[in-house]
Amino acid sequence: MAEGLSRRVFAGWRGLGLFWVLVLLLLGGGGLWLDQLGPPERHETLAEAPATPEAAATPPAPAPVAETPTPTATAPEPAAAPPPPGQAEAPTPGAPDEPGPVAEAAAQTPAAPAPPPLDVPVAAPDFPPARPIAAPDPALLEQGRFGTLPRVGADGRTSIRAYAGQFDRQDTRPRIGIIVADIGISNAQTEDAIRRLPPSVTFAISPYAPRAAQVAERLRAKGSETLIGLPLEPAGYPLNDPGNRALLTGRSSAENIANLEWVLSRFPGYVGAIGVVGGMRGERFAAMEQSYFALQESLRNRGLLFVDARPGVAGPARAWGRAVDVILDEPATRTEIERRLGELETIAKARGSALGLANAATPVVVDRLVAWAVGLERRGVVLAPVSVLIRRPPETAENRTQ
Questions:
Q1: What is the DSSP letter of 315?
Q2: Which range has the worst mean pLDDT, 137-146, 159-168, 274-283, 390-399?
Q3: Which pTM value belongs to this model?
Q4: What confidence tens digit (pLDDT) does each residue in 183-235 have?
Q5: How many other β-carbons are positioned within 10 Å of the β-carbon of residue 252?
Q6: Which stretch of DSSP H or E encloses residue 253?
Q7: Residues 6 or more apart in contact with residue 80 via CB below 8 angstroms
Q8: Whole-angstrom Cα distance, residue 321 to residue 207?
Q9: What angle do CA 392, 397, 400 make, to 5 degrees?
């Protein structure tokens, strides 16, 4: 019985030993087989695995380096595993030698539209030249207390005719006049306006311009009509101050006459006057009817026209002239100036003529006027000097005595 037990124990140990021998043989054979297979190829790294299930179902291309698909929101690309020992690190997506997903997506995205162009000065086109305005005629001047003043010549000639700009009066197209005021205050703006604007624009020189006579001479050579700006008491006076030579409702008639003579003697050779200085248009002075009529009569007796700078009023009652139809630069923005120039064209086509006023020759005003004037005639209207647009006064001293 003991002998049988010993045989069973021995058989058990022999079976256990055979089991471990088989295990060791299997482990050794698997290691040899993996060693023969070697490490995985470089192009089989996780960095180049498909990012989506659809891409995973597609057989890999036979190219040496597979193209990296664009990551999507539903299946983000897994992080790359570290390379096996002894193998060089796989290239990082987006490296210079291999474009990554972001660079590749950017290359496939259409280019963004170009930004809108900046406002740049409009180049001065070649407007047709005009004949120069005649030089100041001594026969149309008289000596005053502050210098020479305009007068009607002994033969009846007036400054309106003598210093008028060139225009074909047989032209039947609707006429548009443009007055640019406060010329001579800013040297840079004055130079730009004289150089770039067409000759048919009328320039109103400020009485406070330091070199008014020199500016007037340049404009005569250009062929442009000139006006003298009249400083009249505006709305909001004295907060809005038209200067120490202004015609004011609180001053005596003698003081206002003296200031008017000072203004009119600033330079010779202009066709008339306009009641605007520094954007102020003399609303309070015009409300004093007796003084306003006296001013108009004084200008007419000197052979001058008068432009009322208040849009929408009837126009001068005692002088040759007219009222402004549209203020172009209040506010002085590109869009608003262009809109008001279009309004001016509409008025001209409806009434036969229209008159616009710009308070100053600012860069945006000059740019918009130049661009607008280039195609003006193609739109069926013509630019004209202000002397072409004036009207006969409905009430004169001769009419009142009849």
A1: -
A2: 390-399
A3: 0.70
A4: 999 999 999 999 999 999 999 999 999 999 999 999 999 999 999 999 999 99
A5: 9
A6: helix 253-264
A7: 45, 46, 47, 90
A8: 20
A9: 100
279 pLDDT above the threshold of 80: yes
In contact, 367 and 121? CB cutoff 8 Å: yes
* Segment holding 358, helix H or strand E: strand 353-358
- Secondary structure (3-state) at 363: helix
- Smallest CA-to-CA distance from 389 within 272, 282, 284, 294 is with 272
Spatial distance between the Cα atoms of 199 and 284, rounded to a whole number of angstroms: 33
CA distance 126 to 229: 29
Q: Is the pLDDT of residue 394 over 90?
A: no
Q: Tokens for 73, please give them.
A: 């929101």
Give how far Cα 106 sits from Cα of 69, 99, 299, Å.
Answer: 13, 10, 72
| Angle CA 395–397–398, to nearest 5 | 95
**List of residues 6+ apart from 57 with CB closer than 8 A:** none
- As a whole number of angstroms, the distance between CA 262 and CA 291 comes to 17
Backbone Cα Rg of the chain: 45
What does the alpha-carbon distance between residue 201 and residue 245 come to, in Å, rounded to a whole number?
A: 27
Q: At 326, is the secondary structure helix, strand, or coil?
A: strand
Q: Which of 336, 356, 334 is nearest to 345 (CA)?
A: 356
Polymer length of the chain: 402
Candidates 219, 251, 218, 247; CA nearest to 234 is 247
Sorted by sequence, the CB contacts under 8 Å of residue 316 that are 6+ apart come out as: 296, 306, 308, 322, 323, 393
